[in-house]
Write a structure and sequence with these properties.
Length: about 625
């Protein structure tokens, strides 16, 4: 664009010159320039750009280059205060109107707006849609200074398919009716294709300029850890080891308070944040975190939306998140400075029950009746999170695939890629699985993964017999594999996009073009699989309990040795070494030498101590012989 842009007495010959002048940047980030150009041409916009990608500048710079006032709809007080402060620090005339202000302050700021002294006005949707503001103040603004555009930040809140749906956001469609000639800009960090379409429809965007940036954040390391009885000790060690600022997310306010208190007792500068705290306490705690007065913020998802702290080094989900979008956005608050950062999810099946209970509480406040559609959506979203947590494929591939972005895998920045499980050729099993889905489709039917697996394994349930699926050619052809193995394959097929899982409230499987390539022997299917236990059906529960008990005991031994040497426990052995010891239970130093992390020095220093502890444990538990070794079949390099 070669035209000149004027603001007061300042004239710019290029957008880059304006960018440098107002924000100090020499060049735009990928995609920003085209978005700004479209905004200056008064187009409606839909911008999907990951956290830290520079969304805010896409509406802030046009606001400064166009005549009139830019109205920015923002969902949180903390968010608008943070952005306004950053703008004011750059000498940009911005302000906000929210419930934190006194009546006198509201009048003073409103007067500044009407006098044309403000270029960006941040408001919450509730205030924007209040009758006095919507039908009184806004028309005054339009007539006296003009409204240059309306920017709706966190636009995924518009959609019931989004991870943070807010009913009041639905009412923003009234803006188009009240101000039909004012361009509308919708911006968000996370949106699936369905959410994007919903945003366009709900806000009545007219032939919008759409920009969808890559969702990939290559500087983030993703991992999932089992949440055991010793999870807190592992969390504490992780915080100490990672260092820097971090956020720990929990599901409940009670868990937030308890965890923050325990961390404080163990010498971690941590503070709680949740919606139940007094607003002044929340603000104070947030400011201390942003200013590095404390290291860790323990919070519910009420914290973090739009926080502009770039140097968060880790984000830990101590409880299971409710959906992939939420997890992506919350974990994405790490490493906004593009430096390396760590994202950990602690996974426990017990968390599933907690979220299912929360989903069951979705009721109509006026009638008390269950909101079945919302419950179905939330349940489906939860299922995708569980699939992610239990997956053996590249975490990044799963995340990006959820948002419709292709990624080859092998990211080298997640636990599954850095510590890969065995790879096996499961093409034949995949053909069986997809054939079963195809048989359903031939009858005009579609079912979910659980039912498909039941048919494959020849279950004689009332539903299968009633549907006549015991007469399908695929009935019972999968008896040679366990339910978990079939589920691992099913998840992998979804993650590799070799079969589709619908996203309409009911999770059913549908074949796509790639599915048929597998069925026609045109595509091979390789799956990273969990190691199978040779005697899982007979001794699985007992073995798991015994392994866990030994693991905790080895942790206590490690802690004692570490205290004697005044070093952190991980200096003695990392958790992965202890876990392997608990599973393999080496009883001689020769066996101990085969454990991950045991070199010659560790062998001489700790070999006798740890093998003696393992032998004592086995004797106390009445265990004899050699622990069952895991077996891997058909391993491929």
């Amino acid at each position: 664009m070669t035209a000149s842009f004027s603001l007061a007495s300042t004239t710019f010959t290029s957008l880059e010159q304006a960018l440098k002048y107002h924000f100090g940047y020499d060049r735009f980030r990928p995609g920003q320039r085209k978005i700004v150009e479209a905004a200056l041409q008064n187009q409606d916009l839909l911008v999907v750009m990951p956290t830290g990608g520079g969304k805010s500048l896409c509406f802030q710079l046009p606001a400064l280059l166009k005549p009139g006032l830019m109205i920015v709809v923002s969902p949180l007080i903390a968010l608008m205060q943070d952005q306004v402060q950053l703008l004011q620090d750059n000498g940009i005339r911005a302000t906000f109107l929210n419930s934190s202000l006194s009546a006198q302050e509201v009048r003073s700021r409103s007067r500044q707006v009407l006098e044309g002294q403000i270029k960006l006005l941040y408001v919450a949707p509730e205030r924007l849609l209040s009758p006095d503001f919507f039908y009184g103040f806004l028309p005054q603004v339009q007539s006296q200074v003009g409204i240059s555009a309306i920017a709706i930040d966190e636009a995924h809140c518009v959609s019931e398919w989004g991870h943070d749906f807010r009913p009041e956001y639905r009412q923003l469609a009234q803006l188009r009716q009240q101000f039909p000639d004012v361009p509308c800009m919708a911006l968000t960090a996370t949106a699936t294709d369905r959410v994007r379409q919903d945003i366009i429809e709900q806000l009545d965007l007219r032939d919008p300029f759409i920009h969808i940036a890559s969702f990939n954040r290559p500087n983030l390391y993703y991992e999932v850890r089992p949440k055991t009885k010793s999870a807190y000790r592992e969390l504490l060690q992780q915080i100490r080891q990672l260092g820097g600022s971090g956020i720990v997310y929990c599901l409940s306010r009670k868990r937030v308070e308890e965890l923050a208190a325990k961390l404080q007792q163990d010498g971690i500068a941590a503070l709680p944040y949740h919606a139940g705290l007094d607003s002044e306490i929340r603000t104070t705690n947030q400011q201390q975190f942003i200013r590095d007065d404390v290291q860790v913020m323990v919070a519910t998802i009420a914290f973090g939306m739009g926080i502009n702290k770039p140097d968060v080094r880790f984000v830990i989900h101590y409880d299971l998140p409710r959906n992939i979008e939420g997890y992506y956005q919350e974990s994405g608050r790490a490493g906004r400075d593009s430096e390396a950062a760590h994202c950990t999810l602690y996974f426990s099946p017990a968390d599933i029950k907690t979220i299912e209970f929360l989903i069951s509480q979705k009721v109509d406040p006026s009638t008390g009746a269950a909101l079945e559609a919302e419950q179905r959506i939330a349940t489906q979203q939860l299922r995708r999170v569980i699939n992610y947590a239990e997956a053996t494929e590249c975490r990044r591939r799963i995340q990006l695939g959820y948002f419709g972005e292709d990624f080859a895998g092998n990211c080298d920045r997640c636990d599954n890629c850095c510590h890969p499980k065995p790879i096996e050729d499961w093409t034949i099993e995949a053909q069986k699985f997809l054939s079963c889905v195809a048989r359903f489709a031939q009858r005009g039917e579609s079912y979910g993964m659980t039912y498909t697996i039941e048919v494959l394994r020849g279950a004689r349930t009332e539903r299968i017999l009633k549907n006549g699926h015991d007469r399908l050619s695929t009935y019972g052809i999968g008896k040679d594999h366990t339910v978990d193995e079939w589920r691992t394959l099913g998840r992998s097929l979804i993650h590799q996009r070799l079969v589709d899982e619908t996203n309409d409230g009911y999770s059913v499987l549908e074949l796509n073009d790639l599915s048929w390539e597998v069925l026609r022997n045109q595509r091979q299917v390789e799956v990273a699989v969990l190691i199978r236990k040779a005697t899982a059906e007979k001794t699985g529960a007992i073995a798991d309990a015994t392994t866990e008990a030994l693991y905790e005991r080895l942790q206590q031994l490690r802690k004692r040795l570490a205290d004697e040497q005044s070093v952190p426990p991980y200096v003695v052995f990392p958790n992965i070494s202890l876990r392997e010891m608990a599973q393999k239970q080496p009883q001689t130093t020769a066996e101990f030498a085969g454990i991950t992390g045991v070199g010659s020095r560790k062998l001489s220093q700790y070999g006798d101590i740890f093998t003696a502890e393992i032998r004592n444990f086995r004797e106390e538990e009445g265990l004899s012989g050699t622990p069952a070794r895991t077996v891997i079949s058909r391993r491929r390099s």
